[in-house]
């Protein structure tokens, strides 16, 4: 389900229904130069391809590059990952007065607060 130009209450209500029925939910809007996008994919599983890192054995090479790990683009591994997305209601109900929130506020885009 994709929503745009809807009221906050309507978005929360539709997101609750989608989350309950395991339906992916996207919402977004643009206000001049500012905009937002929210996604609730429920429980989302995906596979990520990672490049293997080869360890350098000490004493084989000299110089500053010997301490760095070497990436071998020919060798990759597939890593299965799982992400659990929160509901829109939970994302909007964050308490920003605690100590943990102060650290999270530094990593949060100012547009989030502007749209609140």
From TrEMBL:
SUPFAM superfamilies: Activating enzymes of the ubiquitin-like proteins (SSF69572). GO terms for molecular function: ubiquitin-like modifier activating enzyme activity. It comes from the Eukaryota. This is SAE1 enzyme. It comes from Thinocorus orbignyianus.
């Amino acid at each position: 389900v994709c929503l745009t130009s809807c009221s906050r209450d309507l978005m929360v209500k539709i997101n609750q229904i989608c989350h309950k029925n395991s339906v992916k939910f996207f919402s977004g809007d643009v206000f001049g130069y500012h905009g937002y996008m929210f996604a609730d994919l429920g429980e989302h599983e995906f596979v990520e391809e990672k490049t293997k890192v080869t360890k350098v054995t000490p004493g084989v090479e000299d110089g500053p590059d010997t301490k760095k790990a070497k990436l071998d683009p020919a060798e990759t591994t597939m890593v299965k990952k799982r992400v659990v997305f929160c509901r829109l209601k939970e994302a909007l109900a964050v308490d920003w007065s605690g100590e943990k929130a102060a650290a999270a506020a530094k990593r949060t885009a100012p547009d989030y607060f502007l749209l609140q």
